[in-house]
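pinging the channel bc i need a second pair of eyes. not urgent but kinda urgent?? the chain im working w is below, pasted from the shared doc
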Amino acid sequence: MFVVGFVFLIPAYQQFCEQGKDAKQQDYPSYHVALIAIRHIAEFLDVHNWLVTALFAGLVTLFTWRLWQATNELRVSTDKLWDAGEAQRALSEQTAERQLRAYVSIVSAHVKVVAADNNRFSIKGNLQFKNSGQTPAYKFAPWAMIAVFDEGVEPTEKVAAGQDAIMGPGVTNQMDIVGAPLAEATIEAIRKGTKTVWIWGEVSYADAFGNEYIFEHRSKIGRIRPDLNGWPVVAVRTTERKTN
C-alpha cells in the first residue's frame, strides 16, 4: 500500500512539463530523467511487493534471533556471577569456621615412676589438653591408656570415653593415667630401653558449628630423666578426623 500511495503522489509527466514551460531549457531534460527513474523504481517495488515483505520479515527474524542470543548470553553471565557469589560465600563461611572453631590437642605430656602397693612401683602418665580455638569445645570426652610393651610393639586396645563436658576457648584440662603395678625388673628394662611405655587414646568433641571430631594420639617415652625418675613423652602419631 505504501508503494502504491507513493506512485500516486508522483505528478504526471505532462503536469511537470506544463509547470516547467517557464523554466530554463537546460534544466528540463535532467528533471525529465529523474522523474522517469523515480517512476520506474516505484513501479518495480509495486510489482515486487512480496520481495519487500520477505526482506522485512527476514529483518524481523534476524532481530528476534539476535535478541534471543543476547538474552541467553545475559542469562549465562548471570548464572556464572551467581555461582561465583555462592562459591565466595561458601568459602567465607568455611574460612570463618576454620578461624573460630575449637581445636583440641595435647600441649604437654610426661610419664614417671610412682610408688604402688607391696613395695612395688607403677608408671603414671599425665596429659594436658588445650582448646586453642576461639569457641568452646562441646561434648569433650577423652580416654587414655598407659602400658609397658616390648620395644617395637604398638598398642591396639581401646576403651570407652567418660562423661563429656564443655571446654572453653584457651582452657587446659589435665588427665592422669596410672598403670598396673610393675616388678622392679620391668622398671629396670624400661630404663635400659628393652621395654618402652606407651600412652595413647582419643578425644572426641564438637565445635560451635555442629561439626564433630576425634583427635587420636599415640606417644611413647623418650630419653631417661633420672632426676625426676621419669621420662618426657614423644608424640609418635596424632591425627584428627571429622565424624559427621
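so The chain has two domains: 2-47, 104-242. and The first strand starts at residue 104 and ends at 115. — does that match what u expected or am i reading it wrong
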